[in-house]
Structures are given as structure tokens and as C-alpha cells.
Specification:
Layout (H helix, E strand, L loop, with lengths): L18 H14 L7 H5 L5 H12 L10 H14 L3 H6 L6 H23 L1 H4 L30 E2 L7 E5 L9 H8 L9 H7 L13 H9 L5 E5 L10 H15 L3 H4 L3
Helix pairs in contact: 4-11, 8-11
This protein binds a DNA duplex (21 and 21 nucleotides) through helix 3 and helix 6.
Length: 272
DNA sequence: AATGTACGCAACCGCCGGCCA
DNA sequence: ATGGCCGGCGGTTGCGTACAT
């Protein structure tokens, strides 16, 4: 079965899309939807092949696409998911709301692959005696150290929810005070040992900036839910935990990944 | 300032599998 | 059962821009 290339037809435009073309495509899809991609360009009056239209829509024009740089948490998610899923970009994208497989693929090839190899080299016994790590070590590596890059912004809406296949959520209370959460990142990168119930209190007791009474985590519930994707997991992030402001979402994501990845449960969460 | 090089990203290409006549 | 259409996917390309020399 031989198929003609989709854009072989003369007269069909290739290359970058113009704002006018974008407008035509968006207007048409908003009005009529995209029932048949092959028929769409003709009906919409575009000199493009259906495939090109579909790509432009799914990778760029779709309204639910999240633009802008990938957050640290998203990058970590990609790295974790790639370890488990390999180059199944669409499967990875399905777990990162608002991100396209193409975008994730690009980020992987341009940033993360490099980043990961540097990291791995730096952790090998041969490399440990060398100064191969380009990224400077954070000055304060305490578990909840404050970072200058974090702003003490206004309090975000009290509900901060994130999900992976809708299996987990985080709730923060109102009137949080914000302290940066760089420590959790540092912890994660330092390959924490398997976490148990005493993990977070141990973390906290090592940090003078926090007191044990300000942080708690329903760890049993988190692990249990991670093992069973059908069960909603709620991890309580207490008032004084230090999440608020413009970074609340990121901080909650940080929290989420530390809970699950350090527990070694993410693969179960993803049903792999 | 000019040139060369590296990088990032949007878009293309070809293959594959599902669906349907 | 077969062949064609279609959408989805992953790999790759090529252009524009930033950075280095």
C-alpha cells in the first residue's frame, strides 16, 4: 500500500504559519470544530494540508496549551517519566497538563538529556573527585532553606491542587506565610533514602529554620494512595509549612514529587 | 562590526494502527 | 479478508536567534 505524501499536492503551503493563517484556523475550529483534518483546510480556505493544520492546532493554537518555560517541577516530572516510559512523548505529555508531546520532546533533547548526563557523570565514582558539575551548589542546603529567588508574594487561593491522573491533591490553608522551598529540591537531588513515617520530621529537625510542629505529612495516606491510583490521596500541607504566594503551585508540586519519588512509589502511581 | 558556531523550537516526514466500506 | 483513509506518534530537519570569537 503506497501512500502519497500528504503535502505533495502542488500549491499547498509549507513552513512557518502566518498570524493570518493562525486566525483562520482558530476561527474555523472554534466555529465548526475539526471533524476531518484532511477536509478542514479546504473548508476553512487554507492552503495547507490537513496534517499541517492538525499539528499547528495541537502543538500551538489549542487554547489549553500552557505557554512559557518549563518549571523545575515539570522538568523533574519529565525526567522521572522518561526513566519509566522512555521516548513515549505522548504518554509523558498526557501526564503534564497543558504541555504537548512535541514541546516535551524538544525540552528533552535540548535541556534535560544534557542535564541528566551531567548529573549522572557527577555522581559516578570516577567523577566524584572531579569538578564536573557546572551548576553551583546552593549555599544553603538545609532542607527548608530560603532562596533569594523566591518572592514573598500575596497569598494565593487557599486551595492548591495538582494531580497525576487525578490521584492526588494538596491542600494548603489560608494565610500561609511563605518561605522558599529550595530545600526540598536540594533534598530530591541528593537522592534521599527511602522515606518512612519519620522522614519529614527527620528532615525538619535538621533544619533550624523550621520547627517540627509546623510541618506534618500524612505519609501513610500518601503511600497508600500512590499504590492505588483509584484512591484519592490527600497530603496535608499545614499552614506554616511555608507555601504561599506566587510560588504556591510550584511549591506544592515540589512537595508532591518529594513525597512520591523519595518513597519510590511513582511507578506504581503511574501503573507501570 | 563581522563572521562563525551553538542552541532552541516549530514544523515536516514517514511509519503505524484503528476504523470502515 | 482486503485495501484505503485518517489520526497519532516519534524522529528529524531547518530556520531564526543568541552567543562567542
Amino acid at each position: 500500500m503506497v501512500r502519497a505524501p500528504c503535502c505533495e499536492k502542488m500549491g499547498l503551503k509549507k513552513g512557518p504559519w502566518t498570524p493570518e493563517e493562525d486566525h483562520v484556523l482558530v476561527s474555523y475550529i472554534q466555529q465548526y470544530g475539526h471533524g476531518n483534518w484532511r477536509a478542514l483546510p479546504k473548508l476553512a480556505g487554507l492552503l495547507r494540508c490537513g496534517k499541517s493544520c492538525r499539528l499547528r492546532w495541537t502543538n500551538y493554537l489549542r487554547p489549553d496549551i500552557k505557554r512559557g518555560n518549563f518549571s523545575r517541577e515539570e522538568e523533574e516530572a519529565i525526567i522521572n517519566l522518561h526513566q519509566m516510559l522512555g521516548n513515549r512523548w505522548s504518554a509523558i505529555a498526557a501526564r503534564l497538563p497543558g504541555r504537548t508531546d512535541n514541546e516535551i520532546k524538544n525540552v528533552w533533547h535540548t535541556h534535560l538529556k544534557k542535564k541528566l548526563s551531567i548529573k549522572q557523570n557527577s555522581t559516578t565514582p570516577e567523577a566524584q573527585g572531579q569538578e564536573s558539575e557546572p551548576e553551583p551548589e546552593p549555599e544553603n542546603t538545609s532542607c527548608f532553606a530560603k532562596s533569594e529567588s523566591f518572592e514573598y508574594g500575596p497569598v494565593s487561593p487557599p486551595q492548591c491542587t495538582t494531580s497525576a491522573d487525578d490521584t492526588s491533591s494538596f491542600t494548603t490553608s489560608e494565610n500561609n506565610t511563605c518561605s522558599a522551598n529550595m530545600g526540598m529540591k536540594v533534598d530530591y537531588e541528593m537522592n534521599l533514602p527511602q522515606a518512612d513515617e519519620s522522614f519529614w520530621s527527620e528532615v525538619l529537625s535538621a533544619d533550624q529554620n523550621c520547627s517540627n510542629e509546623t510541618v506534618s505529612c500524612d505519609f501513610d495516606q500518601a503511600i497508600g494512595a500512590a499504590a492505588d491510583p483509584q484512591v484519592n490521596a490527600t497530603v496535608e500541607v499545614p499552614v506554616d509549612f511555608g507555601f504561599s504566594g506566587s510560588n504556591m503551585y510550584d511549591n506544592c508540586m515540589d512537595f508532591w514529587y518529594n513525597v512520591f519519588t523519595t518513597a519510590g512509589e511513582i511507578s506504581e502511581l503511574l501503573e507501570i
